Amino acid sequence: MTSGLLFASTGALLFALGLAGVILIAHLLRRILAFNVMGSGAFLILVGLAQDNDIPDPVPQAMVLTGIVVAVAATALALALTRRLHALTGEVELPRDEA
Amino acid sequence: MRRLLVGSGAAVFAVLLIGALLEPLPGGIDLRIAVASHMAASGVEHPVTAVLLNFRGYDTLLEIAVLLLAVIVILAGGLDPAVDRPRAANPILQSLARLATPPMIVVAVYLLWAGAFRPGGAFQAGAVLAAAAVLLHLTGLLPSWQRPALSLRWGMTAGFLIFLAVATGLLAQGALLRYPPAQAGLLILLVEAGLTVSLGLILAGLFLFLSRDPGDEE
Hints:
The structure holds 2 protein chains of 2 kinds.
Chain A: H1 3-24, H2 28-49, E1 51-52, E2 55-56, H3 58-89
Antiparallel strand pairs in A: 1-2
Helix pairs in contact in A: 1-2, 2-3
Chain B: H1 2-22, H2 31-38, H3 47-55, H4 57-76, H5 91-114, H6 122-138, H7 150-169, H8 184-210
Helix pairs in contact in B: 3-4, 4-7, 4-8, 5-6, 6-8, 7-8
């Protein structure tokens, strides 16, 4: 197993971990964190798989760099919406569906 | 019960995913050769920068647009009318932050300049600038931003506007963002300089607009 595949496998584990967190955790702040763990897993898979014979492929690396910045923006937006929800309702969890 | 179900589901998913990763890719497309063969025409010497700003410049244009959109949505959501509490100012921390800020700005400029031939570039430089602003805010030297003034709005959008102007200006070449090889390096530097300033302001804004205390409303 090369180091690239090790990175990719770790990424797969992180992705699954984050996915379970997004589904299970109701607290919005922790759910946003779980979502970020998922994103980091996806980035690790991309960077790891692109590292064939230890010569990196610049295209996935550029893609991951773009992805990180977009993830930061999405996280900030999610945090802002969570704060708004907290200010309006005092809750940090989304209301459950009654149906 | 639900925990167990989701947990085991995620575990199975992880195992399947790793199994798929271990399969050798059947004749994957090797983009390294394509990138390497076009480096001479890209205007920069570092392959990642060449991909970001030249070969896939479209992605980067949309990326700064996404960041701008996030800030606009946060501002449109309405900021809570909160008072900025003066923090307990620690003089040692403050003088340290004062000392650290000028080198951080120099590092940002270096990263921007280094992006042409080694790891670095507008995004790293912008992140360092934003970190300097956050550091100043956390030590109580820079108050959180209450309302974005006109100059701040222009600063945040400048990177996107410069990029868009360069992109549309190059439409005469036949396609969006097709740099003429002779001027590519200069144009990329111009775009990256604009991106650095805007990214620093946007990333700092994401923190400083949100760091106001809504707890004092009632």
